[in-house]
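User: Okay, second chain of the day. Same drill as before: sequence in, structure tokens out.
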Amino acid sequence: MMVDDKVLSKDEILELVASRTWYHRYEVSPGVMTPGRMPIDAKMLLDYYGLPQDLTGKRVLEIGAWDGAYTFEIERRGASVTAMDIQNKDRTGFAVAHRINNSKAKHIQCDVTYLNPKDHGKYDIVMFLGVYYHILHPLLAFQNIYNVLNDEGTVFYSGHILEYSYNIDGLMAKHKPELMAIVDKIPLTLFSRGCHANVWSNWYIPNLLCLNDWLATAGFKVFKQQVHEEGSTMAGAAKKITNFKLAPDWDANRWYDLSSHKEDMKGYKRILFFGAGGRLEGLQEELRQSVPAGAIVGVADNDPAKWGKTIAGYPIVNPKDIPALKPDLVIIVSTFAVEIFEALDKLQGETGLFFEMVNVDANRLLDTSCGREVY
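Assistant: Same drill. Structure tokens below.
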């Protein structure tokens, strides 16, 4: 093995390996294993996770690198690698392994809680293996990973799950019947202040439903997932959704009044309101002042008792008649906005009809607690 153009002998490599305390046991150099207690076959595992053999030209961030078992295998596949860990590289085996492998990988000491593109750059791939359950803010971690990934970037992740935790943890084994009754039905996360599976830092153990909700909330679409029942672990991969917004359409496409959108509505020729109730009646003055004359084609409502009647001077129609009206804008004024958005989305898919949808709701809600603005 060469280091700065100097060939290291096997004895020198062994001496370097002996100078550090290792957690991972892996082949750091041909025929030389590190004396860690956790065996890792990096090549085999990365193949299992689905990481490509050829990463030429790719920028890869590995979070939780520790001794570098994965780092140098990823580098061997042609990637430019940044290894990140909360520990100093000289406290683990990373610095020694870096020297032995004559590596060009960069190491940064950082908690994923503080990961950001300004300080740490952008990447094509993020490896997040065996980490999410060891940290106090796993959802924030996935959101930070989203922010440092390039468009269409991929995160590979793995860790403990709740589904088969009775195989590895005494408390979960004791409560196996209760766990099995709900674990595949609702999103759940176990928070362990003690030692889940005899490890004090196993903080958050989600079931797959919850883990997938974390990923969806952070802006990812899962495309691969594998489960190991004996160890109650999983491995997955997910793509970054470009221009992701946390708020659903019914909330993101929200107007708080009509008057503020008078100019917007001038661009539409056939406007349909949905919801023939008190909200629309309360908007009658704004209707007269803000909506272009002659643009309103009717008001849809799900109540059959209202069909054929009028509200604010406009006919109330069956939602099934919407395709015949051919609206280019539907303004929803109903407390059932979520259900109406879903039904109209389905209608557009079934009929090929296209129209914009907005939700008029005077309630101003904005949640910025998730690490970035919802909208």
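The longest helix spans residues 337-351.

User: Thanks, on to the next one.
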